[in-house]
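Category: protein sequence paired with discrete backbone structure
Discipline: computational structural biology
Format: plain text, a pair of labelled lines
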Amino acid sequence: MKKRNIISIIIVAILVIIAGILIANNRYLSTLHGDAADFTVYDTASITRLFFADKSGNQTLLRRTDKGWTVNDEHRASQRVVNDMLYTLNRMRIKMPVSIKKSDNIITRMSATNTKVEVYQMMPRINLFNKVKLFYHEKRSKVFYIGDVTQDNTGTYVLKEGGDKVFVVFLHGFRGFISARFSANPMDWRDHIIFAEPMGNIASVKLEITDDPNNGFIINEKDRYQYTMTRLNGQSVDFSDNKVLTLMSSFGDVRFEAFLNDVDPARRDSIINSPFQQRLTLTTKDGRSRSVTTFRMRANADLYDYSEEDLDDFHDMINDPDHKYALLSEGNEFVLIQDFVFGKLLKPADFYSKDYKDEIPQVYYKELETVESY
């Protein structure tokens, strides 16, 4: 009988221990879930504004409007970058809490370098059992600070405003850190679009070429998908329909590579006051006009296997074959463009002529003999 009692006591003790572990684990998970709610946004469609600020003085306000997201209420935001941000807020998860001792050190570092994040959402004043929601209003729902990355580069430190506990967060399904996504620099959020016009909205396209003015042209729509083309001296061009249609259909999504706001103002003025290479102007049927003016860009000596002496010997006339400087009429923005994107848009009038023939490079046997084999 005593032996049975001892076994019963042991079994009860084991069950109590297991129950205690399960309860503690459940509390831990509940705590993590509650903490996660301080960072994760499950309903990103309700987000109206996002605000970012860092210790360098950068500030960015993203606002949702009927026409899309804006940056600091002035510029159009890149929808792709905003979508990445919304996805991050929705999929961001807590990997683990950080020990109190380690949190103190991390908070000290974060006091010198961090990005403050504020999330604003449309939320109901009355919410009955998450079923009946009434009287929606905009509310600042979350405020937290993004710190640097963990030592293994797989997580990012984050701290709730007013909190004393640091967490490591990660993006579900992504291996790496997410701190770079929370940028407070407005330039990182702005759209790079130059032209975004469907073919049916375009009234005319004009190209001016400084070094070859007779090869400049203007294309006007005379009927739906039917056009006239004349050189800028007034001479009519007997053009290839396919080539003109290809050009006119190429303005649906034309973007530049990068902003050049960090270029020295004196150098910028020197460039844009020099003779331009081409000026491309698109006018829509409702009278809107936008142009991009290109300027030659000095080749990077290291990239193209030149020496700086080579460039100086040619009096700075060796151009970068892949890039150009450009000035946008909208906002007077100074940007960098790629020949891969713009090369097809800046071809001269001769190219569109029906009797134009592409030059085929000639390769001679002697040249082939000099090609090294690998």
User: Anything to note?
Assistant: Residues 38-188 form one domain. Confidence is low (pLDDT under 50) at residues 26-33. The chain is about 25% helix and 35% strand.
